[in-house]
């Protein structure tokens, strides 16, 4: 292995691991230490990429994935990000608190309306049956084929994109010396537990099913043959021309018929059953009772009135983001995803634990999925009257292991004490702004400027950096012909933003870009303008800290309830830097009454925007604004440095480990390697990578990391 140059600190860029096949996912060197000879470079610093993108802070409503990672942000109103009078979040709604998923990568599938869990009837994006069938076919594309596409030109992608400087991330609050460590060498090195609205941290601790006399027997899961289940599913999903399916009762008893009736009604929502005699034999006949709407709404009369309509459960998952997990659960349960609800989305590249609610699906059926799903566990079931709502969570609790750290015990102590006592700058992380050469905030700025031709061009034009081959061909076709139909034909996966926009342009024409752009799901469209707000906020908070440091000054803003007010000179001593907020630009916020107010105005004026008129001709794109704390101090901070010899061993137990009775790891007093195990809680709309950046004193951008001497281990 090659050594590292003296004093250089590098880490591979976020989310790039998605471009490699699993067996190729590179582990990359991260190093920043005192000068040393090349021969002394620690050869064991292997880093499993995608790591720093572990933005387990959440995003509103939809998981915006970049590469393999979805960053999450909460559209919920956090105490530190409230609006004046009417408080509203401003996250790019892929995701939730800090997770979704921020930027929307062109190479990723964008969840269409059926994939937007929790929206229920509010989901009004119309799609034709033909489009739905087309997307079903697209879902069938082999992952192997996609991975081959993704494997191309990984290193090339690393050469493009933004640096932290480009998006205003320039300051640190602490003075300690940075050190290196490997984040997420194993999936279990990054675990996220949701903090519910009652302040309790969600844990998977009980797999038992509540006793309910109304539940059918376990026989409902085995009484039907695989062929019968397939026929019933095709009937349920209108995949054939049959109007009914008849199942012969081989061992005709009343009990057997009852079980078959129960199995069909519980496993295939929307189907009704009846018993018929045919030529001396008994048949159970399944049929649609309520047309095509039957699938969307579980049968009302089959649910006991004494039971809450929603089954709440804790979902433990590995290597799946929340939206993908819900889509998979809905597929196995044969229901639509929009009957699920949740408080925030969680990222893919982690072990995450969160609460989910589902309408009129029994705990018995949900628990049965534990027998057939890998890397999932469902438990802690209860029946409640109400669903969950986005933003109801109080945040997330993180357990993070940084392996093979180079810092001394004193370095670690200084860094962690600073994180606990001072905190970190509440920047929007790099994932908010995109991974490609076209930042999402540029698209957002063009939307706010009403420059729709530029919006179209920014999304569709050829760009530098690695992309899937078919996207490159699509962009080339668009640049050559400006024919949306021709460019669309180059895309086998049409649910990406490019595909949706091209479909809109084919439908509405090049002279009606506004309507064409409107085909993209609302949350994804708003993500662009929220990205621009985040870009402005990052730049302004850096200017604020540069100008005034880490103490409140007259003219700073603080929140009094949901209303922002300026600090008067006589009141300065009554506040700390942790009380200070700064606005995301909008028509319903006020600005600081010092130099930074003029800096806001100058920045928006340079972007041809009027800070005094942030209302847009199209209501969806009018920015009301919000307030965000400039410094976040994590809660429940604890840490320990442990020694270990085997880089493959887990360094703490997960919830599933505890359920299985595995003993916690035992550490020796000395070992070949040292690891920093960190625990901390963050509120919604904050980024875990920004906390880790403060501890390690590292730049999290893709472009900056490739300018450093990165050693690849394959």
From TrEMBL:
Record's keyword terms, sorted: Isomerase, Signal, tRNA processing
InterPro entries: PsdUridine_synth_cat_dom_sf (IPR020103), PsdUridine_synth_TruD (IPR001656), PsdUridine_synth_TruD_CS (IPR020119), PsdUridine_synth_TruD_insert (IPR011760), TruD_catalytic (IPR042214)
Pfam families to which the protein is assigned, alphabetical: TruD
Reactions mediated catalytically: a uridine in tRNA = a pseudouridine in tRNA; a uridine in mRNA = a pseudouridine in mRNA
Disordered, as annotated region: 73-153
Signal peptide range: 1-17
Limits of the TRUD domain: 423-633
Residue ranges with Basic and acidic residues bias: 118-127
Biased composition (Acidic residues): 128-152
Superkingdom per UniProt: Eukaryota
Family to which this protein belongs: Belongs to the pseudouridine synthase TruD family.
Protein name: Pseudouridylate synthase 7 homolog isoform X2
Organism for this UniProt entry: Balaenoptera acutorostrata (Common minke whale)
